[in-house]
Write a structure and sequence with these properties.
152 residues; Immunoglobulin-like; 5-stranded mixed β-sheet; 4-stranded antiparallel β-sheet; 1 helix; 9 strands
């Protein structure tokens, strides 16, 4: 019969018990090892920070949700310094929504700006619609302004 090697001379520790303890420690620390936090718009709808539809992204606090109360729509979004994730809670059906990522903080027009349609007019969904704006790959600059616009 082959006995497992003794790592600590003078002790009679069972190697199976030691193995189980190591796996339990790995499992305990694995939950805190992830670098992604869960964000829930429904859970944090009361805690969201109201902002205007045109905002300077360099002044936004990190890890918070923001709410835009526009006359034609209400939406919330989360900004992780690269991408924007959000939910349109309510909008008028005859208006669409455009996201305008601006090169300048004041959101004046520039050839470096990025505009994306997140909701088209007269097309569902009109409420509870999730959207995401991914930062373009291999872009050599950052956007400093963000604006949500309505259009017909």
């Amino acid at each position: 019969m082959i006995h497992p090697p003794k790592y600590f001379p003078g002790t009679t520790a069972n190697w199976k018990l030691l193995l189980v303890a190591v796996f339990l420690l790995i499992d305990a620390f694995a939950n805190s090892a992830y670098c992604i936090d869960n964000i829930s718009f429904k859970k944090y709808s009361i805690l969201s920070i109201p902002v205007p539809s045109k905002v300077d992204m360099t002044k936004l606090p990190k890890g918070k949700t923001f709410q835009v109360n526009h006359p034609q729509f209400i939406l919330q979004y989360f900004f992780n310094n690269r991408d924007i994730f959000g939910m349109v809670f309510k909008r008028e059906s005859k208006y669409g929504i455009i996201v305008h990522l601006c090169f300048f903080r004041s959101c004046e027009e520039s050839p470096y700006d990025l505009k994306k349609v997140i909701a088209s007019p007269q097309q569902p969904p009109f409420d509870q619609a999730f959207f995401s704006i991914k930062f373009p790959r291999q872009l050599q600059y950052d956007f400093q302004g963000l604006e949500f616009l309505s259009f017909k």
